[in-house]
Task: structure prediction
Amino acid sequence: MAYRVHLMEPAASFEVDEGETLLEGADRAGQHLPHDCRFGTCGTCRVRVASGSVGYQEFPPGISEEEAAAGFALACQAHALSDVTLLPERRLAPCSAPARHMATVSAVRALGDGVSHLTITLPEAAAADLVYRPGQYVNLFLEDGSPRSFSMASRPEGGQLDFHLRRIPEGRFTHHRVNALQAGDLLEIELPLGNFCHHPEDYRPLLLVATGTGLAPIKAILESLMDSEDGPPVALYWGVRTEADLYLHEEIQTWAERFDDFSYVPVLSRADEDWQGRRGHVQQAVAEDFPDLSEHAIYLCGSPAMIEEARRDFLALGASIDHLYADSFTFQAQAAETV
Result:
């Protein structure tokens, strides 16, 4: 049995067959729905169900039951149970269409234990026309054409892009390829990609929560807000395992000079006895410090486990579903499985 899916923005419609997800039906019909992981984890394909109903073979981790009850669905996992009408989650600022370019490696250096800092430069022609949203990511391609996805850690400015790459032991890109890169080498890339980005229209205090190299897109967002005369209050919580994993700790402490209201709380889950700061999981530290999250715009980036728990706990503390954004680093786990 087939059902009709109506898209409100842009106006279009297509059919989904029994057993097909909304995203599969859209792909077959040539209709684009934003998506990334296709596993129900990242949340990029979240849509509003304006009418009709959908269901799941297995409830996906990239959406909470509260979000589903509020009318949200993940197109990559949801199956139509009737004719449905879909609205996009949010209207986003314009950006360039994804395109492939040959970028030049500017530098590669270690950032603390287990993280590489890669800087690349786009061709002048590509850089002149590129518009991307702080928080988006790129695909970097291996020699065989297979992609690896990494968030940009720099704000849109000129043609230079920064990345924080967690080194996966024996990983084809983050270990073997990165270790062999030198200044002047060429990398094929595709950008800009993804819908995780800053939403300046919210006009709310910002709460930014990251684990590990999930700090990268958060850094890009923060850099785009630095030195603003009317920027919102900003609270950054960064969760890692040990103090050695705080690869940007000293730099972050200087960011307060460029904001009117900025706080930074590092949280260690495996701290040694000398650590004088916060311990445990980063989402727990946020919950302890913010008993009422109803007025905040919240950005979550990092491990799927953190994001799943943070969504649940923060909604229980009054967080607005309409102002909670997440970028789950599922692609790092996928890369680890394909070394």
